[in-house]
Amino acid sequence: MENSSLLNDILDFNKKFVEEREYEKYETTKYPNKKAVILTCMDTRLLELLPKALNLGNGDVKLIKNAGAIVSHPFGSIMRSILIALYQLQAKEVFVIAHHDCGMSGLKAEPVVAEMKERGVSQETLDTLAYSGVDFNQWLHGFDSVTDSVKHSVEMIKKHPLMPGGVPVHGLVIDPRTGKLDLVVDGNQD
Ligand SMILES: [Zn+2]
Questions:
Q1: What's the CATH code, domain 24-106+142-189?
Q2: Is there a contact between 188 and 168 (Cβ–Cβ < 8 Å)?
Q3: Alpha carbons 140 and 70: distance in angstroms, whole number
């Protein structure tokens, strides 16, 4: 199993990390110093680049990640996380930060479903899900324009019936190579 060696590497490293008290320089609380919650993409290039490019350290913000930085369901786990951050964890503003060259850009359901079949998911299973109301074309659809996607997610959050008043919701797009931010929606302007 190729994964077990990564697991072992991680566990070995972790043992040393704790023993040598490397954690001490990261000590902070669960409340974000900068009073913000950020929704961004799971893209590998943003793992360290995004916090560095925004001057964020451990403890500064609540960071939520998914594929594409998309809020696709008003009562899904992303929206729930944002609301918990605002109501229970002292966040006072929201940033949606998508990025150029995203894996969700132009994503269509057909090739994903084709690969599922190739890797053993049966047509019968797919049919059953389709009959149960799962629309793969919608569920596995990414976005065509990253700017429109950010605007849409910002609107979903801003207009959510459970949002507290007076919370700015900003929308931005980051360059995954340089870390440059482009402002799409300035939540302080409305
Ligand atoms: Zn992405």
A1: 3.40.1050.10
A2: yes
A3: 12
Which residues are within 8 A (CB) of 62 and not within 5 positions of it... i.e. 6 or more apart?
32, 36, 37, 38, 81, 85, 89, 91
Distance from the alpha carbon of residue 166 to the mean position of ligand 1, in angstroms: 29
* Residues of each annotated binding site for Zn(2+): 41, 43, 99, 102
**Digitized pLDDT (tens) for each residue of the chain, 190 residues in all:** 555 799 999 999 999 999 999 999 999 999 999 999 999 999 999 999 999 999 999 999 999 999 999 998 999 999 999 999 999 999 999 999 999 999 999 888 999 999 999 999 999 999 999 999 999 888 888 899 999 999 999 999 999 999 999 999 999 999 999 999 999 999 998 6
Q: How many angstroms does the Cα of residue 42 sit away from the middle of ligand 1?
A: 6
pTM beyond 0.90: the answer is: yes
The Cα-based distances of 43 to 33, 47, 49, 91, 138 in angstroms read 24, 7, 10, 24, 21
Domain assignments of the chain as residue spans, ordered by start: 24-106+142-189
**Cα 97 to middle of ligand 1, angstroms:** 10
Q: What are the binding residues? A: 41, 43, 99, 102
Ligand 1 centroid to Cα of residue 101, in Å, is 7
